[in-house]
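Task 17 of the worksheet. Students: predict the tertiary structure of the chain below and write it out as structure tokens. Keep your answer in the requested format; marks are given for formatting as well as content.
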Amino acid sequence: MAELRRVGDVIYEASASSRPGMRVPVRVLADEELIAQIGADHSLSQLMNVATLPGISGFAIGMPDMHEGYGFPVGGVAATLAPDGAISPGGIGFDVNCGVRLIATGLDRTEVEPLEPLVHELSRSVPTGYGRGGRVVLDGGDMDRVLADGCRWVVESLGLGRPEDLAVIESGGALSSADPSKVSSRARERGHDQLGTLGGGNHFLEVQVVDAVFDDEAARAFGLVRGQVTVLIHTGSRGLGHQVCTDWVRVMDEAMPRYGISVPDRQLACVPLSSPEGRGYFAAMSAAANFAWSNRQVLTHRVREVFARKLGVRPEQLRIVYDVAHNVAKLERFVDGQLLCVHRKGATRAFGPSSDELPAAYRGVGQPIFIPGSMGTSSFVLAGTDAAQQVSLASTCHGAGRAMSRGAAKRKVVGAELRRELEAKGIVVRCPSNAELAEEAPVAYKDVERVVDVVARAGVARKVARLVPIGVLKG
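Model answer:
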């Protein structure tokens, strides 16, 4: 922490000379309170380790929600120069394409009351918890199609969704760099019945209400109005993605000596992106990302089915605002013409109004970004800015960020009491166990309002709307 110097309102930097082996400086977006929280764990040290990666460009960047992770900190961003810079599975994480999807309904709060039957029906239709399977079971051929074609195959072949959904999913819900042959049989086995499931940990499905609008123009473009009911889905590639990361970390750990690479932490195992191992991992990670987008697509269909059964709502009345990943590596070309492999781990893409990668309706406004709070607190809708390219590698935060480990949260919080507290606030909760509920208690997370304020002050995103939970389905 002593190496950090404040260089802007909410920007701290440490030079490349702060530690032997660092190739680029470190940059952290935070205010004084958040920088103190970041200093309470090893995330800054991990970020300095990231700055030693071969081919890293610009800065190793930490977001205000940064906390300790596997090799890379969660809330970390690093870009390496293609084609020979490093790619590291630790910079994406085990839950490949964990991400967030926002669904806007044509309903207000009064039209979903009483809420208890709706949340109960959602809990019956959406399997939660570690290892749980769902109704979609994929054989070998179908798994190949999901891994290769993502959401398009789910919509067109399974009929789970609407064609217009694809336009408002990052990358259309499929990365063309995917190669199903690079995904192991063990990964396929773990994922064969997990489309349409939430999983465990911090994954959730929330019924929310828009309670504030900060940017009228962007809110109109996103189709959000005050009082509107929305559904926010947070989950990823489940056991399949976890196995992809496990498999390829092992491969890279064994391959590093062949490329003369050494890293200060074995969890940063990496190889050149252009190497056979690097290309193989990138193709497998892309396939796992396609699986995750497909998972959220099936969950969207389940939500539409429930709203139709309980409230008589037509599918087209539940419109996807956007779907964005926050655990992925992508090849992106920046304003200086460089092609970079951008690792975002617990960080969200934040493309600005001039990006031609955005849906036509959002050009001139900026990419929608969703920042979940902790259970029982607000979530935020943001819009990306063009300035984010220079400040933060076109990236922003992905949530509130943990301030306490899951074990510490369970020691501090009584799950049954937390459940009663949430219900006393009018929030209907469904979670498999009180212990898992305690792990995700609001006290275990940083202040999401403060985190969002930092990225707005840094100029990498602007606030559009605030959402408050009324029904929570936890993994």
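Marker's comment: The first strand starts at residue 5 and ends at 8. The mean pLDDT is 95.
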